[in-house]
Amino acid sequence: MKRRDFIKKVGTGSGALAGGAVGATAILGAPAVHAQEKTYEWKMVTTWPKNFPGLGTGAEFLADTITRMTNGRVKVRVYGAGELVPAFEAFGAVSQGTAQMGHGAAYYWKGKSEAAQFFAAVPFGLTAQEMNGWIYHGGGMELWKEIYADFNLVPTAAGNTGVQMGGWFNKEIKTIDDLKGLKMRIPGLGGEVLKRAGGTPVSLPGGEIFTSLESGAIDATEWVGPYNDKAFGLFKAAKYYYYPGFHEPGTTLESFINKDALEELPDHLQLIVLNACRVANQDMLAEFTNRNNQALQSLINEEGVVLKKFPDEVLAELRRLSEDVVADVAETDEMTRKVYESYKAFRAQAIDWHTVSEQAYLNARNPKGVV
Ligand code: CA
Predict the structure, then answer these.
(1) Is the pLDDT of residue 3 over 50?
(2) pLDDT at position 367 over 90
(3) How far is the CA of 290 from the centre of ligand 1 (A)?
(4) If you measure from the C-alpha of residue 321 to the centroid of ligand 1, how many angstroms do you get, rounded to a whole number?
């Protein structure tokens, strides 16, 4: 657009400027134009305690990034679990417009949609790197949007924990039978796998885990990884810390945005909001990658935690049960079937490729060989 056409257009569109013989510089610098820029005050509800390391601070990072990248035009304020609504009511609150945005994990909403769980974590499923491949480039995002559209929400990835830990136990897990009768906090499809193994899965928001474990209301728990688990003090209530977190191999944290609130924004602000989520998605994984081993060493060396690997036979049995659980969930409804088929095809491709890339390299790099 030529400069004078632009000036003409601005002049035409602005009542304040119409009719006046105003110089170009005055028009382009006119405060009246800026005064027309609408600002938006957004509330972000989360499923995490306010400022909880990694997860809660990740939500704060996202809110701050949006606020600053929009130069304050979209001002986002974060509410921790229970501040505006309880953790597990965040989805409904954003769906209804009580808040404009939420930060959580999709498996918390399995009561709304079984298919949602595929966008958080699947036992023996995709790693963080693979989740991003599926969501951003493998068709996952389109399916995710389709599911959340029924709730007037727009979802996107906004954090990843990487491979989690298997959890905290007060007894050793030597065979699959040791999981029988075990009451364990473990959400989503991982919980279904525990049920198949004879245990009782419990879904609790993070803030309630420690007291439940300490009081004996639950026998065992998983939460995230060393950095987060140490922050909750879980080592004070259980002795054995098991790995790997077969049930959450690269959990995607999500942002869910009220569709009307998002679409009310001009295009470029919508793009900033969605891309800030991408930045948050990458940043959280980077933070966990840096912090987890430091926390793990401290748990072992300073807190006397006993680190244990699930025996290979137990993992093999859990993998078999997981395949059944995931295949059965696919039968729930047509949408879940569609998501399952997409996820399954991507997983097969990821296994092929990563056998000759990531996995081969990690094995080659490790002086202990294949562990
Ligand atoms: Ca977890």
Answers:
(1) no
(2) no
(3) 18
(4) 18
pLDDT at 130 over 70: yes
Ligand 1 centroid – CA 56 distance (Å): 15
Q: Are residues 192 and 302 in the same domain?
A: yes
pTM over 0.85: yes
CATH code: domain of residue 217: 3.40.190.10
pLDDT band at 368 (very low <50, low <70, confident <90, very high): confident
Question: 1 CA to middle of ligand 1, Å?
Answer: 53
Question: Ligand 1 centroid to 159 CA: how many Å?
Answer: 13
**C-alpha 287 to ligand 1 mean position (Å):** 17
Q: How far is the CA of 166 from the centre of ligand 1 (A)?
A: 8
- Please tell me the distance between residue 190's alpha carbon and the centre of ligand 1 in angstroms: 9
**Complete DSSP assignment for 68-91:** HHTTTSEEEEEE-TTTSS-GGGHH
**Ligand 1: centre distance to CA 98 (Å):** 27
| Residues near 201 by beta carbon (within 8 Å), at least 6 away in sequence | 184, 185, 186, 187, 190, 191, 192, 194, 195
Question: What range does the domain containing 326 cover?
Answer: 167-248+291-353
User: Within 10 Å of residue 75's Cβ, how many Cβ atoms?
Assistant: 14
User: What pLDDT score does 63 carry?
Assistant: 98
Nearest to 278 by CA among 132, 143, 134: 132
Average pLDDT over residues 166-184: 98
pLDDT tens column, 349-362: 999 999 999 999 99
Measured in residues, the chain has a length of 371
Q: Give the distance (Å) from ligand 1 centre to CA of residue 351.
A: 23
196 C-alpha vs ligand 1 centroid, how far in Å? 18
CATH of the domain at 274: 3.40.190.170
The tokens of 89 are what?
Answer: 């009511």
Q: How far apart are the first and last CA of the chain?
A: 62
- The token pair at 273 is 């909001």
Q: What's the total number of domains in the chain?
A: 2
CA of 222 to the centre of ligand 1 (A): 6
